[in-house]
Amino acid sequence: MKRILFAASECVPFIKTGGLADVVGSLPKNFNKEEFDVRVVLPKYACMKQQWKEKLEYVTNFYMGYNWKERYVGIFKLELDGITFYFIDNEEYFNGDKPYTSDGLWDIERFGYFSKAVLSILPVIDFRPDVIHCHDWQTGLVPVYLDHFRFAGEYYQGIKTVMTIHNLKFQGVWGTKDVRNIVGLPEYYFAPDKLEAYHDANLLKGGIVYADRVTTVSNTYAEEIKMPFYGEKLDGLMNARSNCLSGIVNGIDYEEYNPETDPFLPYNYSVETFRKIKAKNKVALQEELGLEKDPKKMMIGIVSRLTDQKGFDLVEYVMDEMCQDEVQFVILGTGDERYENAFRHFAWKYPNKVSANIYYSEAMSHKIYGSCDAFLMPSLFEPCGLSQLMSLRFGTLPIVRETGGLKDTVEPYNEYEKTGTGFSFSNYNAHEMMNTVRYAEKIYYDKKRDWNKLVERAMTKDFSWKTSAKQYEELYKYI
Ligand code: ADP
Ligand code: GLC
User: CB within 8 A of 412, min separation 6: which ones?
Assistant: First the structure.
């Protein structure tokens, strides 16, 4: 039996800001239980839903030296769907109303504490993992502390680490002196071949340098980050570590995202029934959002963090032009004020055609995946992307830019060979995107049979965790 410990800063159903939470919440359920004992450790945020906080069971507490003080480390536990989750409790660090703050150094202090605590609790909970699987910069110090802890005693020797990069854009960077003072690692670690990058301390870099294996969430992104455009100034390191770097594409939870059983949809449907039923969801959504009610009108959905990564400057640029067509846009998202206001503006200008929902809602996201005809995701970069996988599962055809995981998971329509599961374009250019949207409109209105065949293929593609979980299992075995 191999023991694996996932360490992460978010996880469905407890706390979520993006796809990382979906991955950490769903992947552990998909390993072979006879061979792998997979557990998860998370911070115990005060902003977790009350429903979950009530269920946590107190285990024990102790004190750990960190940032010049003995710090309280509480441990809570919960078993859910056969997986054991541990929660690290420290009110000073995790009491805020959001998992992340806008203060870079404070977040480094908080997640530095978390990373050290992940290792410190192991003897206490009596779970010595063979592999600690770290996710993103918030857990970047785990492999570094582990290296340091090895000198202190036998217990930590032989534990391996995997570092998964979900988004290279976020690295946890701050001035070396401040970081060193807080995290308490010896000066030795703060060198350019270790934690330091461009004279700053960089937590993700530490994780990448010290992890035994590095993965990212699609093959294309694993290649892209070796180049300056996508490498976020770490492309040199990615090349240096390319022997240990691989891409494993994300899956989604096929039970949670299932048009046949989804409790948020007014009408459930399947690959056999979508032709008759799916448009009823569309009409229900048009009614709910105050758009013109018409089952035949093409509806394009967006569910996303509203940031530069997602390509919304392209959408903003040609939205007026696109709104001259017979289409409706339903947007759900929060993020940069610039994009929030742009979408509010278009909703005001085209009230029959554009609905801007600037908030976070799981229910509304499911309704969009299960009601729209197409889903627009023109990302500047996209390590994997889960929204397009959810759309495919619901037969909502993705229109994407060919980058990262979008390129690996959406096969563009080929009208001659009658293949494909969506539409795509290659250059980061607003008119190229608009032409692709218009091409999709043409197929939707003029070639309904082809469109429905596309939907059929999209819905029968398998993006569950089956294949990818096997790849992680292999990695854990041979590390
Ligand atoms: P990223 O992790 O970069 O934000 P992904 O496509 O991997 O992008 O994952 C985004 C996840 O967050 C999906 O589960 C998507 O449905 C969800 N999501 C994003 N914005 C919202 C929102 N405003 N309301 C509900 N769910 C959202
Ligand atoms: C990040 C990426 C997204 C990916 C998700 C889960 O948030 O932006 O592309 O799907 O992590 O791996």
Answer: 402, 420, 422, 423, 424
**Alpha carbons 29 and 395: distance in angstroms, whole number:** 25
How many angstroms does the Cα of residue 226 sit away from the middle of ligand 1? 26
Lowest mean pLDDT among 149-153, 293-297, 342-346: 149-153
Among 384, 391, 408, 465, name the best residue to mutate to test ligand 2's pocket (greatest count of ligand atoms within 8 A of Cβ).
384
Q: Which atom of ligand 2 is nearest to the CA of 221?
A: 9
Find out whether 217 and 164 touch, Cβ atoms under 8 Å.
yes
**Ligand in nearest proximity to the CA of 384:** 2
Nearest to 278 by CA among 300, 291, 259: 259
Residue 356, helix vs strand vs coil:
strand
For residue 18, the CA-to-ligand 2 centroid distance in Å is: 7
CA of residue 304 to ligand 1 center, whole Å: 5
- CA-atom Rg of the chain in angstroms: 23
**Backbone φ and ψ of 436, nearest 5°:** -70, -40
Name the average pLDDT for the chain.
Answer: 98
Q: Which ligand is nearest to the CA of 168?
A: 2
153 pLDDT tier (thresholds 50, 70, 90): confident
Q: How far is the CA of 362 from the centre of ligand 1 (A)?
A: 9
Q: Which atom of ligand 2 is nearest to the CA of 404?
A: 9
What is the token pair recorded at 213?
A: 């294996």
The domains located in the chain, with CATH, are 2-251+466-478 (3.40.50.2000), 274-462 (3.40.50.2000)
Atom 24, ligand 1: residue with shortest CA distance = 360
Burial (CB count within 10 angstroms: exposed 0-12, middle 13-18, buried 19+), residue 390:
buried
